[in-house]
Amino acid sequence: MHSLFGRYARKHSRALVCAxxxxxxxxxxxxxxxxxxxxxxxxxxxxxxxxxxTVNVDSVTLTGKANGVITxxxxxxxxxxxxxxxxSELWSSASIPNDTYTAATIVLDYTTAxxxxxxxxxxxxxxxxDTTGAAVTTQTINVTLDPxxxxxxxxxxxxxxxxxxxxxxNLAASNVVNTGVSPPTVTIKPFMTVATSAxxxxxxxxxxxxxxxxxxxxxxxxxxxxxxxxxxxxxxxxLFNDANxxxxxxxxxxVGSSGLTVMSQLSAGTTMTAAYTTYQPTATPSTTAxxxxxxxxxxxxxxxxFYTQGLEGDVIARSGNTLTLQGSTLQLNDGTSSYNExxxxxxxxxxxxxxxEDNTALTGxxxxxxxxxxxxxxxxxxxLPASGVVTxxxxxxSSTNTGSVRIQSTELWGSLVSSAAGSLVLNLQTxxxxxxxxxxxxGNGANAVVPASYAVNTGSLAVPAGTVAGAPLWVxxxxxxxxxxxxDFDAFAINTELSVPASLQVDWTSAGTTAPFATLxxxxxxxxxxxxxxxxxxxxIGSESIDLNSLAASPQIVPAPSPxxxxxxxxxxxxxxxxxxxxxxxxxxxxxxxxxxTVYNTFATFAAQLxxxxxxxxxxxxxxxxxxxxxxxxxxxxxxxxxVN
Length: 645
What we know:
There is one protein chain. The protein is mainly beta. The protein folds into 4 domains: 16-299, no CATH class; 309-408, CATH 2.40.50; 410-495, CATH 2.40.50.320; 502-562 and 601-644, no CATH class. The protein is 4% helix and 49% strand. The protein contains 4 helices and 45 strands. The protein has a 15-stranded mixed sheet that branches. Strands 15-16-17-21-20 form a 5-stranded mixed barrel. A 5-stranded mixed barrel has the order 22-23-25-28-27. The longest helix is centred in the last third of the chain and has 11 residues, at 603-613. The two termini are 28 Å apart. Residues 1-31 have low confidence and may be disordered.
């Protein structure tokens, strides 16, 4: 649910800094005759109506032209896909036989799934069933890669031929949610895409224990250990420091080389790190490779240590030094995690270490800096008292309790009331997608916080030109310290509809349709809202929902352009792999618990295939596009489209 690094996710094109030289793209020992190269496998999601979507990702196999089926990753990871809304996770730096791979198969295990949806503003665990109404176990997703962009692994030294394999689970296209029953039910038919480039510019998170650092070169190396994994190491990776990289290590903030210097002094093998990175393909004399540039790094005890557990969630109330969290996830030291539908508690104290994620301006933070409305990750001692309420003692009251709170980027949504230099007033509707009615602001200020006139300090930021009173705004930042409001919130990004990631979702009845589009061409399409089997259509921008039937005409859906040839990371640019390319897919349940999907990077090819795929035996059931919406022109520019038939 949270919008961690939301401002990065909203930058649909991101300048990539060209490295002066390649030192090494990884720490693998492959050579020209080993017969193996490297695939950087990442996992991400396209959001849906979920507060938790935790399943086991069992394996990835690839089908090569020469080798047939090979296993790329076989280490099971428990993944809450709702956490991957605004970044991708590096799952593995996998050693893969040299070949041209044209298809991938992913196995998901729902046997112990924890899937929760929001009902009347609170998370409720759902009953998970397959399309026959039976309990769900494993699901197999077969994906055919775009023939124009297969995964090509060639033999070179030191893994310089490494290629990215981006896997995305579309939650909106994969599930049908019924909140009309108690508990709600979720009928699943997983829809995943696999490509050699992502359809977005999300940061890539790289988690793992430190191996070594090289201050002179400006790098550090980790074993890849994704998600909450505390045991397995799925390859290794060298990460590149930039001059503006923000490091938060053991509760202290550094920038650039000073952070890398401190990192080099930490214990190798035991110090956990998590880096949020950009990915830059680079050219070598004969092949392509890539560099992961660090934007923001967390390391040491405030990330993870042996003595404390973690609790992540949204602060909906504070009484004295006790926080109430909604939609929280508990992380234990054995690598397991659990989502809490019920509220949880965090205890603060004067010794609690408080930091603000990816922020060098907020200094002198303490336990009173944590207030209602913030998304946080706390570390402390976990207990489950007789009351049954999950409680985390983050007071830092003992030598083994290094209690800490990391304040995360938090997203507001509401309509503009008024603005002036350095400030604006919102009619606040949601915080972190939770309705504002979920929050008890008592104590945030000397006077009562009024959501209908929520005061935001914008500093040097300006409200985008042309924004009028009543227009929706999305604001990222941090709630003001407890007891200090007004202002109620400090902003570091202000976004309008034109710059916020959106989704366009259409459902047809269970009978489906073979004629879902009013227009279909190589340049775009429109949905036929008059189709007899049309069930519902909505554009979602954060917490905002726009019913398609409320619009004068069906929106024109057009593909996002590919990066221009000649720019770093553009397809065909000096032989480089693309940083991102639009992605369009069609798929259906081809057999029991098995989905077959074909992906395309070219909209014209996709549009030509749609009439062939949408026939009586396999009609259109769901349509999900992600991108940005322009209300003025009624145009939806899609970076990805998934059609379920």
